[in-house]
Design goal:
Blueprint: E1 7-12, H1 17-31, E2 35-42, H2 55-73, E3 77-83, H3 92-105, E4 109-113, H4 124-140, H5 148-154, E5 163-167, E6 174-177, H6 182-190, H7 193-196, H8 204-215, E7 224-231
Parallel strand pairs: 1-2, 1-4, 2-3, 4-5
Antiparallel strand pairs: 5-7, 6-7
Length: 234
């Protein structure tokens, strides 16, 4: 477990990743008084098996779904970067966008995908998002001479977050009890109808509960979300 932060920033590759991997944690923290912000990196425009669907049309649908899901959880603001789905790169501009969000929202903790998984395959956008978010958190958001223009032109002072929580690690070391908020997690995921409806034969709510039970193994909780924690010295 970690203490409920005053504020948290969730850096998300695609619409529904935030709810799927840490929606229960977000709901719990907000319930306990935290302010939570999202940065959504891509438009999600490739996530469909419908041969009649187009990326532009799907991006509009998924953006609306993400806004609704975030509102369901009580997320304070969603920053939409709208990079094309599947085309994230580790660039200075992308890193600057995440640094801007960190300096603007000044989170105590940043949540993002673990980019260093070895035991299972990981979507490329997830790897890139995790790597860029980690670098943006430390040291780029901390040091005033990195992206000095953000301070000079936008008044965004440097900020040092206390920790990163990486979701979907090979070996988790931190578990958040979501027993009281798993229904909120399910409700928020169901907002992503374009994705949930792709599996009509699967009970989405039971699937979420089963994955949360698996994540809780060894933690003593019934339902949990699991992370790898990296802390930074103050």
């Amino acid at each position: 477990m970690v203490e409920t932060p005053g504020s948290a920033l969730v850096v998300i590759p695609h619409p529904d990743d935030g709810e799927g991997w840490c929606g229960g944690t977000v709901a719990r923290w907000i319930k306990e008084g935290a302010e939570v912000y999202y940065v959504l990196c891509t438009d999600g425009g490739k996530g469909s098996n419908d041969l009649e669907m187009t990326p532009d049309r799907l991006a509009v649908i998924r953006e609306k779904e993400q806004i609704e899901a975030a509102a369901t959880l009580g997320v304070k603001e969603v920053v939409l970067l709208r990079h094309p789905d599947g085309e994230l790169e580790d660039t200075r501009e992308f890193r600057k966008e995440i640094v801007r969000a960190i300096r603007r929202f000044r989170p105590d903790v940043v949540l993002c995908p673990d980019p260093y998984r070895r035991n299972s395959y990981w979507h490329r956008d997830h790897r890139i998002t995790g790597q860029v978010a980690a670098d943006a958190t430390f040291p780029y958001a901390r040091d005033h001479l990195h992206f000095h223009e953000l301070f000079k032109d936008e008044g965004l002072a440097p900020h040092k977050a206390g920790m990163i929580l990486f979701w979907a690690p090979d070996v988790p070391d931190t578990f958040i009890d979501i027993g009281e908020t798993i229904d909120m997690k399910i409700k928020s995921l169901l907002c992503h109808d374009s994705q949930v409806s792709k599996n009509p034969d699967r009970d989405a709510a039971e699937w979420v509960r089963e994955r949360a039970r698996q994540s809780a193994e060894g933690s003593g909780f019934q339902y949990a979300e699991a992370f790898r924690k990296v802390e930074f010295r103050r």
